[in-house]
Structures are given as C-alpha cells and as structure tokens.
Design goal:
Distance between the termini of chain A: 32 Å
Order of helices and strands of chain B: EHEHEHEHEHEHHEHEH
Number of domains of chain A: 1
Radius of gyration of chain B: 17 Å
Oligomer: heterodimer
Distance between the termini of chain B: 49 Å
CATH architecture of chain B: 3-Layer(aba) Sandwich
Number of helices of chain A: 2
Family (chain A): Belongs to the HypA/HybF family.
Strand order of the largest sheet of chain A: 2-1-6
Protein name (chain A): Hydrogenase maturation factor HypA
GO molecular function (chain A): nickel cation binding; zinc ion binding
Number of helices of chain B: 9
Order of helices and strands of chain A: HEHEEEEE
Structural class of chain B: alpha/beta
Number of strands of chain A: 6
Radius of gyration of chain A: 18 Å
Binding site for Zn(2+) (chain A): 73, 76, 89, 92
Largest sheet of chain A: 3 strands, mixed
Helix content of chain B: 40-55%
CATH class of chain A: Alpha Beta
Largest sheet of chain B: 7 strands, parallel
Pfam family, one (chain A): HypA
Largest interface: A-B, 38 and 35 residues
CATH superfamily of chain B: P-loop containing nucleotide triphosphate hydrolases
Chain lengths: 113, 217
C-alpha cells in the first residue's frame, strides 16, 4: 500500500529531471533498494505502469539493484548476511551487529533516448 | 544514454519532517513516534504512561478510521488531535504538519500513535525525536527478526502485556538478542498496561530524555 506514495515520488522526480534536461523518452530507471526497507518491488512496478501514463516515463523499465543487510560478528569479526529467523554469525555462531547497509532507497540513474 | 541522478525517493517527505522538527522545537516539544501492530496495546500504553508522567503530555492519534482512541484521550483532558488516513497504512510528515497546526500544546512530550503496522510507518520520518517500537508477549518473540527496520531505528523498545508471560512461550532472550543485534543502543522496557507494571521505570527514563532535550535547546 505505501508503495503508491513512493511510486508517485519516483514518477515526479524523474519527470522533473527529464523536463530539466529536455528528454522526451526515459527508457530505464535504475533504483537502489535496501533489503531492510519495507518496499516491495512488484508493487512499485504495478503502480508505476498506472502513474507514468502520459509522461515521458511510460514504458520505461524499472531496474532494482538490491542491497542486502550486513552484520558484523562481535566475536570473529566476519561480515555476513542474515539467515531465516536468526541474526547469528554463520561462521562461529556468535552474535553480530547490524552495519549501516540495507536501508537504501534512491534513484541512482536514468537511461534516456 | 545514462544520466546519474542519485536522489533519495523519500526526499519530499523528509523535507517536511525537517520543517516539523523546527515547529516542535520552537514549542519545546519532544516528539515520540510510537509504532506497533494493531492490538499491541498502544492506546492503553499511552494512557497508562501519561498517568505516570508529571510533565505535560499531548497525543496525535493516527488511525485509518474512527476517533475511538482520541475520545479516550479527550475524556481525560489530554490535548489530542485525531488523524484519519482513510486507508493509508502509515502517517507521513505532511499529516503531522497539519496536526501540529491544530494542536494547542507546548512545553512537554507529544506522543504520536502511528497506524497499527510494523512495516510502513518505519520508512517515513515524521520529524520526531525518536521512535518507540512496541511488541507484546502474546504476538510472539520473533518480531525483531521479521521486522528488522523498525527495531534498527527505534531508540526505545517496549514489550507490553508482560503479565501474560506465564501463559505464552515468549523467549525473552531471543527477543533481546534480536533487538541488540539490530540496534546495540536501544533501551528495552518490559511493561503491562493492564497492571501498570514497569511504567515507573519507563516514565523516569522518558523524563530524563525530556530534560536532556530541553537542556540541548
């Protein structure tokens, strides 16, 4: 549900950018999306098709670069991704701590004609 | 041709959140954004907490529909504004901006009861001083593992309905480990809004946070 307002932002921001640069057709929007955000790729695609109609963005491909959350083990220092229902280090089984990765949501670039 | 942009998608919301920060700071308000699932006991928690506070408190009530919770606050003469989102699953900075313009309150703590949801409200900054994440014994000990963003951002984590511990398989260690992995600095409080257990400790902590806030201004 909250993807609607996010997709509106994406459409508005890219439309402004296209206007500023006299671009008639945007072919691809490259988005960086962190694993920890609550945003769902398929919902953004769904709303995008509706909201981009009549804009230079219509038909553009949405490319999501996913960023995984990373943890650092407090004991062995290894950097790791989480497992299901556990945050423990897969190498030594100790506790880790979240490092600042996985909360990203930004438009990295656009491809234009 | 590729054009680099690098723009935060939440920029528009975040700009209004900054504006809210200035408004509430001018009015010496410390704003606490309370996020928890439906039925976790947010409203009873706020009512019990305010009973234990000796500084002025106000409330912004967020709900999809109805003013049931706001009426409970108003009956106790607590300054309150109700926001009905009409379907949206979270409050955003703009709705708080409007609520602040109608709420006659200054010099105290303003609690925002966000929409009952552990996912969407975590992504939207409102201009608050900090987030308070709520879970309860009956809904299980796995919430930090299932909804990591909320617990990674919250300064305070509350486990409510602690009086139900004898009846549920709630593994406190598992819950604490999850929170501490996501957020080493989070303070965890155990309370029961039904019996009042734990509120004295939490109220004391909040008062300390408020005096630090006022001194910092």
């Amino acid at each position: 549900m909250h993807e609607l307002s996010i997709t509106e932002s994406i459409v508005n921001m890219v439309s402004d950018e296209a206007k500023k640069r006299n671009v008639n057709k945007v072919t691809k929007i490259n988005i960086v999306l962190g694993e920890l955000t609550g945003f769902e790729e398929e919902s953004i695609r769904f709303y995008f098709e509706v909201l981009s109609e009549g804009t230079p963005l219509y038909g553009a491909k949405l490319d999501f670069k996913k960023v995984k959350a990373e943890f650092k083990c407090r004991s062995c220092g290894m950097i790791y991704n989480r497992g299901n229902f556990t945050f423990k280090c897969p190498y030594c089984g100790s506790s880790g701590v979240l490092i600042e990765k996985g909360k990203e949501l930004y438009i990295d670039s656009i491809d234009v004609e | 041709m590729e054009i680099k942009i690098i723009k935060d998608v939440l920029e528009a919301n975040n700009n209004i959140a900054e504006e809210n920060k200035n408004i509430k700071d001018e009015r010496k308000i410390m704003m606490v954004n309370i996020i928890g699932s439906p039925g976790t006991g947010k409203t009873s928690f706020i009512l019990k907490l305010i009973e234990n506070m000796d500084i002025p408190c106000g409330v912004i009530e967020g709900d999809v529909a109805s003013d049931i919770d706001a009426r409970k606050m108003a009956e106790r003469n607590i300054p309150v504004v109700q926001i009905n989102t009409g379907g949206a699953c979270h409050l955003n900075a703009n709705s708080i901006n409007k609520a602040l313009s109608t709420l006659d309150f200054e010099g105290g703590i303003l609690f925002i009861e966000n929409i009952g949801n552990l996912i969407c409200p975590s992504d939207f900054e409102l201009g608050e001083d900090f987030k308070l994440a709520m879970a309860n014994v009956a809904e299980g000990d796995d919430k930090p593992y299932k909804y990591p963003l909320l617990f990674s951002k919250a300064k305070a984590v509350v486990i409510n309905k602690i009086d139900l511990l004898p009846y549920f398989d709630f593994n406190k260690q598992y819950f604490y480990d999850g929170v501490k992995t996501l957020n080493d600095e989070a303070e965890i409080f155990e309370v029961s809004a039904r019996t009042g257990e734990g509120f004295e400790v939490l109220a004391k902590w909040l008062k300390k946070k408020y005096s630090e806030y006022v001194q910092g201004k």
